């Protein structure tokens, strides 16, 4: 990275020794769950992110049933492998119709999933490997122990977790150092602040925050009349009176953003960036224009007065509706 890299993009530390850019690129939407995506534009967006100094790419082996990993392989074909850290989630069980059937965290599943991931990515190692969700039938010690074996073999560099609670985090970290916890964190999803974030900091574990724009809800681009044809149609926050309430919060945030001369999305991302140098927001940009907007958040400096104004506009727990549908919430260890 050069001096032209946006302020704050140069690096942050996750865990003991993983250095990544202050913003990571979440690639899920390029393959799954948000409707059709333009593959050429997706590759161009990944290239633009790397050129801007983004060094963390986040994916899952179940995003598009392997499509996302192959897309990243294509995008990195003319780039040096060590220019980026690739973070991979595994364990979600899918079917050919796009359905979801739980999570598999067995040691033999870890070895199997990783083998396929390495082949699809065309690499000999994954920088961060993590179960997408806790498998309630398998002790976390067994899952982490199996990943640790792959660390010993050089196939994995760092171990991460996703959407687990403080107790699970402690148990896992006792088996092998955990580099980062990937979990939803935004202005309207702040549940981690009570127990999970303090525990991560006590243990020296970083946080990669997804959903920083709450799936577009607090991006400033969403309108009440917009029709949802993807998984957000089942999200409580996008339904009926909840949506009206939440968009009113966005309008309050827009007034603060206007005073700073930035977009709503930039202000929301900057707020997450301001929560600590051990927090790395993942932005799910699928197009270069959205990526450019997100990168602009790195230039936004928030004063104590700005933070107070943001808090007044969007108080903690102000959102209407849960972040996932009830059936999904029950499966989140982080919510227990």
Task: Describe this protein with a few key phrases.
two-stranded antiparallel sheet; 17% strand; eight-stranded parallel barrel; alpha/beta; TIM Barrel; 336 residues; single chain
Describe it for me?
The chain is of the alpha/beta class and 336 residues long. It has one domain (12-217, 265-301): TIM Barrel (Alpha-Beta Barrel), CATH 3.20.20.100. The chain is built from eleven helices and twelve strands. An eight-stranded parallel beta barrel has the order 3-4-5-8-9-10-11-12, surrounded by six helices. A two-stranded antiparallel sheet has the order 1-2. Helix 1 crosses helix 2. The protein is globular, with a radius of gyration of 19 Å. The model has no long low-confidence stretch (mean pLDDT 93). This is Aryl-alcohol dehydrogenase-like predicted oxidoreductase. Residues 23-313 form the NADP-dependent oxidoreductase domain.
